[in-house]
Amino acid sequence: MSQPISDAFWMPFTANRDFKQAPRMIKSASGMMLTTNDGREVIDATAGLWCVNAGHGRREIADAVHEQLMTLDYSSIFNFAHDLGFAYAERLVEHTPTGLDHVFFANSGSEAVDTALKIAMQYWNARGEGQRKRFISRQKGYHGVNFGGVAMSGLTNNHQPFGQWLMVDHLRHTLDIERNAFSQGLPRYGAEWADELEELLEFHGAETVAAVIIEPIVGAGGVIPPPEGYLAKIRAICDKYSVLLIFDEVITGWGRAGSAFAAVEFGVTPDMITSAKGITNASVPLSAVFVNDEIYQRCMQGAKSAVELYHGYTYSCHPVACAAGMATLDIYEKEGLLTRASEPGGIGEYWQRALHSLADIEQVIDVRNYGLMGAIQLRGDGTKGGQVMQQLWESGVMVRGLGDSIAMSPPLIVEEPHIDLIVKKVRKVLHESL
Ligand SMILES: Cc1ncc(COP(=O)(O)O)c(C=O)c1O
């Protein structure tokens, strides 16, 4: 018998009243598939929430977690440590862009973002430029739900109700359906929007700005790959004005974009990267901020107290999460998942072709994709994505509804028949429903 749906559970980022009238309940998961409470099989076209990159129910991770729980379940990470933490940090930075060789651990993407903002401030404190407290982020950006990330958010509903507790200005987003509709991979037009960063830095005074934070590919804002050349321009402007650049790679990290990080994929190296989700295949919460040597060394040397950064979480570097992360890296490396989406003639190209085959549907006004991410943009009033998500759920596909688009990011183990099935069902639902 199923558990009664009650108001004891206040669900996150969910229309609770609607959901509780018509719940979508999942009982188990394996590989690409979810099983609902009523025994239906649903294909997971979102990898959970852009995070189960190696697919569901990986025994290697479960075994590592079990063993770790029985060896060292927990110990303080303030003033004490365990071998696994150091080993895992070394292992992680083998995958980061050259120069980003230091890791600060947290537990969620939101915490990683707020940690990166604080590290940026601490860096400038250590350099004697503590007046740099302002940040620049971008419209349509999502940087989690803690107060730092909410201030950075470029999504109105996440930002407006909670106030502006940090000084931040927002760059224009780069979604331009008029010029770039149906771009395959990176859109051609829009690199010039990066120039607005220069205007904002001049306007506020670059000497007041700590860092720029952007997602290299916007995720929750609607899957928006950067225009060709845009990120390199952002990097060049940050260099010109000596402002730190943070890439929020909570979604784009760990193979989603066809490389370990989008920074590697696009050949643009930020000063910090935030990472979460796929880092442990979403099995145990863990996140990380990868920091370059300049920031790390300055913070070490310029600190005014023995503790260089008054920041950290009870569960930073939790041994069980580290064990899950290690086992996840084993899978990624063994199965070549971090670069699978960018193999020439491979699954990423198949995904691109399949998504763009939906362009002939009248209501589809744009298709965007990169790596194993994609969005279908529908003509609508802002609610189409949610409607289509529900209909697809009923027909056996889990997607994410975002405004008038549906976003998809299947596990990186996806095969051609899965993609065929997803696209076939999307086509059918769009034909029937709109
Ligand atoms: C780019 C980005 N940053 C931060 C976050 C927040 O991560 P979490 O939900 O783990 O706090 C997300 C979550 O989707 C994200 O997409």
TrEMBL record:
One of its GO terms (molecular function) is pyridoxal phosphate binding. Pfam families: Aminotran_3. The keyword Transferase applies. Keywords: Aminotransferase, Pyridoxal phosphate, Pyruvate, Transferase. Gene3D superfamilies: Aspartate Aminotransferase, domain 1, Type I PLP-dependent aspartate aminotransferase-like (Major domain). GO terms for biological process: biotin biosynthetic process. The keyword Calcium does not apply. Belongs to the class-III pyridoxal-phosphate-dependent aminotransferase family. PANTHER family: ADENOSYLMETHIONINE-8-AMINO-7-OXONONANOATE AMINOTRANSFERASE (PTHR42684), BETA-ALANINE--PYRUVATE AMINOTRANSFERASE (PTHR42684:SF1). This is Beta-alanine--pyruvate transaminase.
